[in-house]
Amino acid sequence: MAVEILALGEPMVEFNRTGGADSRDYLQGFGGDTSNFAIAAARQGAKVGYVSAVGADAHGAMLRALWSREGVDHSTVREDPAAPTGVYFVTHDAAGHHFSFLRAGSAASRYRAADLPRAAIAQAKLVHLSGISLAISAEACDAGFAAMAAARAAGARVCFDTNLRLKLWPATRARAIIGEAIRSSDVCLPSYDDVVELYGERDPDRLADLVLGMGPKIVALKLGAQGTLLAEPHARTRIPPFPCRPVDATGAGDTFGGAFAARLMAGDAPADAARYAACAAALSTEGYGAVAPIPDAARVRAAMKGPAA
């Protein structure tokens, strides 16, 4: 399969609590922000590949089976016999959803620049990674920047999602590295809370101006319940949130990113791609887990034509 979108990062196996605060029932699923992105893009019809490493364990095999079912090329995912595949748990309360990670020393965190599939990167049209891709280790950070440089040298677009996780690295390091990644990207998908934390500004338009000024040509600032602000050098569009009945927002931002990238690669104007992605992200919150509720293209198209639209 000729891959047009190539995502790089850490895949994980998910255990999501489905009952109340005292429940001991967990739904096994899958996660990892860039893996979610890849699956979301594939479900919209894009040709997608994934770059990472998994352990030589049952969880790694489960992820490979998932990617095979989803049509995501995982031939560039390494197997590391000396490290585990990452795992995380999701719990829920009145304040939202909360994550507990078992990822220290994971196979993906041991990924190095020397491991990159440079031929696959050179053939892709868009290479995607996130703040988490860069935060999990110094080696993974170097690999991420090497992937961005290789993509740009080959004429591919670089897509970057801030996905700030301060439990993974100090704020000063995160600010410096995420800033450099934004400067290296063509398409940036920041979350509002991330850029407020990084830069102190709270006005969405000023934040969009700040990120655009760093170099990207397309900025889709995700505003949660307030929708999305799409900013380009000479255009600005407010995308309202799509109506939905949310039960779990895990992975909604990743679904937005994957759907947005898929529609950009299909030739949509950025504003049209953002409207489509907003609908896909909203629908993904109507079930538990990061991956299972991600809608396919038929469901998104139907929802966009339905009464809610």
* Structural class by helix and strand composition: alpha/beta
Order of helices and strands: EEEHEHEEEEHEHHEHEHHEEEHHH
Main sheet summary: 10 strands, mixed
**Count of runs of 4 or more consecutive helical residues:** 11
Beta content comes to 15-25%
- Could you name the ranges where pLDDT drops below 50 across 5 or more consecutive residues? none
Q: How does the overall form come out from the CA principal axes? A: globular
Can you walk me through this structure?
This protein has helices at 33-43, 58-70, 118-123, 131-135, 138-153, 171-183, 192-199, 204-213, 252-265, 270-284, 297-305, and strands at residues 5-8, 12-17, 26-31, 48-55, 72-73, 77-80, 86-93, 96-102, 126-130, 157-161, 187-188, 218-222, 228-232, 235-239. It is of the alpha/beta class. The strands form two sheets. Strands 1, 4, 5, 6, 9, 10, 11, 12, 13 and 14 form a ten-stranded mixed sheet that branches.
Question: In short, what is this structure?
Answer:
With 309 residues, this protein is an alpha/beta fold. It has helices spanning 33-43, 58-70, 118-123, 131-135, 138-153, 171-183, 192-199, 204-213, 252-265, 270-284, 297-305; strands at residues 5-8, 12-17, 26-31, 48-55, 72-73, 77-80, 86-93, 96-102, 126-130, 157-161, 187-188, 218-222, 228-232, 235-239. 39% of the residues lie in helices and 23% in strands.
